Known about the structure:
Strand content: 25-35%
CATH topology: Peptide Deformylase
Distance between the termini: 58 Å
CATH architecture: Alpha-Beta Complex
Low-confidence stretches: none
Radius of gyration: 16 Å
Number of domains: 1
Structural class: alpha+beta
Number of strands: 8
Order of helices and strands: HEEEEEEEHEH
Helix content: 25-40%
CATH superfamily: Peptide deformylase
Number of helices: 3
Mean pLDDT: 93
Amino acid sequence: MARVDASIVRLLDDLAETMYAAPGAGLAAPQIGVGLRVCVVKGDENQHYGLVNPVIVKAEGSQVGYEGCLSIPGWVGEVERYETVVVKGLNRRGKEVRIKASGFTARAFQHEIDHLDGILFTDRLTSLSTLRRVEELEAEEERSVAEAVQA
């Protein structure tokens, strides 16, 4: 896909609406059965990005953290990602853009671009033993906080 037309703009809008309703931090076209390299990402401070043909052109550092996915609701797992990425793609006006992102936003871009490449976060788990239900992880965190307060 070399250009952005009205159907792609509608797809970007549909993806964003679905992402916010879920709620999620990103959504890729293949997740809704559309075989195009199109995704949306909600970054830090509620920034919103919609990209066509996104690719990572630069990556640095490393971060490990829990991720979940709208394709596998209720589950999270620990994934290692780059700390900072530069993503290149077309925006909704068809203009080439480069976006430098760090932290959570960089993680979200990597996660959605993985979807475009047919990769799920479960394929990138640091260990299968980190895969758990969201409720289980939340309970563990609550216990840790309670133990820290009692110490």
